[in-house]
Design brief:
about 475 residues, 14 helices
């Protein structure tokens, strides 16, 4: 008999049919001849209750077997059970299983098991990332993460997008910030040895770079883990019209905060023939689609987060999902923030034209001024990436950030510069290596078109939907400075 997932069992008709249950024990309670075992298999938030009545066992129950196996059970043990699905007399649950057979598949020593019944801190659970999915909180996080990934694909597939895979190793820097993880097969120990010998022979430190011969490296040149799949996605958008990537990206940013990860997943669509207004329309639709999906498909888990993690979460998500997003230029947004500061609003960083809008500013715009999601567009070119289309004023680019109450920026994008000369000037003005962008510039030489795109950090989305405070708690195995243990 194939085991039935507990989420399906809980919806089944309790008509006395035989079932097989597999999962991990959450608790065992022995009371006056009645034994109650709570089992969870991770398929849903709720447990299934297995019951054994010593005084009135099921007629087909293997009593001796059950008694022997019960002695092996503690929280965390894995079991395979067979029995009859019946209506439960207990409140809060519709069905339960009357035991006929029980097998402890894996024991769990309570003196060694890291997950105890008492409340555990998020930091403690992070140190036990390989086991934390067995807790209510993290089981719910990963189920929501699964549903949101499915929703991402559903949204784009319904709209004629092609799913593509961008390379994880690249020689170009999409963001131009230089915070990239280098990929090399060269021996650091050998290079260090060469450096010591060269120094002893009088080589100056400023000439040390000459010791590194990238022609002998695996790729024959300096290569890095990608910070974004956008540039590669643009190449396919200019052939397939609408594409999206959804995969891991990497930032070697030494930020040890609740909002930063070194490895995270990015959702990055690119659309040929879309201008900035089209891009903003799609982003608004995307955010609403995802939140409505979560509110519909993940209701039980969201109710847990609303009760235990962030009170008011469901109300907040519902408001954003039903809201009309305000659209305001960067210049006007800064003016409103400056006016608020003059009228007594307290900001750690004073807003001014040319500044990169901080999280506190984003939240003030959405939570105090407009009280709804806000799309800020037309940013100063100096604070945005090289590939963004220059406006006619020569000072701003056609970029947009989507800000939501409770977290600030959720996603952002731009219309891309399709003019060869303007894009080349942007690359030169920033002192970037033109040679590694030859292929990218070809898109502007051969059939260039207006096109746009945006990016959303998947973990940022999950953090927003679940209300989890630390972004390291919405990815199974977080990678951050000094954190790569599992």
């Amino acid at each position: 008999m194939v085991p039935v997932l507990i989420k399906d069992l809980l919806k089944s008709t309790p008509d006395g049919h035989a079932v097989k249950v597999c999962g991990w024990v959450r608790s065992v309670r022995d009371s006056k001849g009645l034994v109650f075992i709570q089992v969870n298999d991770g398929s849903c938030f709720a447990n299934i209750q297995l019951t054994f009545d010593r005084n009135n066992p099921s007629k087909n129950a293997n009593v001796n077997n059950i008694e022997e196996e019960l002695k092996k059970l503690n929280t965390g043990a894995s079991v395979r059970a067979t029995g009859i699905l019946i209506e439960s007399p207990a409140s809060g649950q519709a069905v339960e299983v009357t035991l006929e057979g029980l097998e402890c598949l894996g024991t769990c020593n309570p003196d060694e098991y890291p997950l105890q019944k008492n409340k555990m801190s998020m930091e403690y659970l992070r140190e036990n990332a390989h086991l934390r999915a067995r807790t209510n909180t993290f089981g719910a996080v990963y189920r929501v993460r699964n549903q949101m990934a499915f929703a991402v694909h559903s949204f784009f597939q319904e709209r004629g997008f092609q799913y593509i895979n961008a390379p994880e190793i690249t020689c170009s820097d999409c963001e131009g910030a230089g915070e990239m993880f280098q990929v090399t097969t060269l021996s650091m120990e050998k290079i260090a040895e060469m450096g010591v010998k060269a120094g002893a022979k009088g080589m100056k430190p400023e000439d040390a770079y000459k010791l590194v011969d990238y022609s002998k490296d695996f790729f024959g040149k300096k290569a890095n883990l990608t910070v974004s799949g956008q540039l590669e996605a643009e190449t396919l958008a200019t052939a397939l019209s609408r594409v999206y990537t959804f995969g891991p990206t990497f930032r070697a940013e030494n930020s040890n905060t609740p909002r930063h990860l070194a490895e995270f997943w990015m959702i990055e669509p690119e659309m040929a023939f879309f201008d900035l207004d089209d891009d903003m329309d799609l982003q608004e639709d995307f955010v609403k689609y995802l939140l409505n999906w979560a509110l519909t498909k993940c209701r039980e888990d969201l109710e847990f987060f609303d009760k235990r993690i962030q009170p008011g979460l469901i109300e907040q998500l519902t408001k954003v999902a039903n809201a009309k997003f305000v659209r305001i230029s960067y210049t006007d947004a800064i003016a409103k923030l400056e006016e608020a500061a003059k009228n007594g609003a307290k900001f750690e960083f004073n807003p001014y034209w040319g500044c990169d809008i901080a999280t506190e500013h984003e939240r003030y715009l959405t939570e105090q001024i407009f009280k709804c999601p806000v799309m800020v567009y037309n940013y100063p070119k100096e604070i945005k990436s090289f590939y963004m289309k220059l406006n006619e004023d020569g000072k701003t680019v056609k970029a947009v950030d989507v800000l939501v109450p409770g977290i600030g920026e959720l996603n952002g994008g731009s219309e891309r510069e399709e003019d060869y000369d303007k894009l080349m000037k942007a690359i030169k003005d920033r002192g970037m290596d033109e040679s590694v962008y030859d292929w990218y510039m070809d898109l502007r030489k051969f059939g260039t078109v207006p096109h746009s795109g945006f990016g959303m950090g998947f973990e940022r989305l999950i953090r927003y939907v679940t209300g989890m405070e630390n972004i390291r708690d919405v990815i199974p195995y977080p990678r951050a400075p000094k954190l790569a243990d599992f």
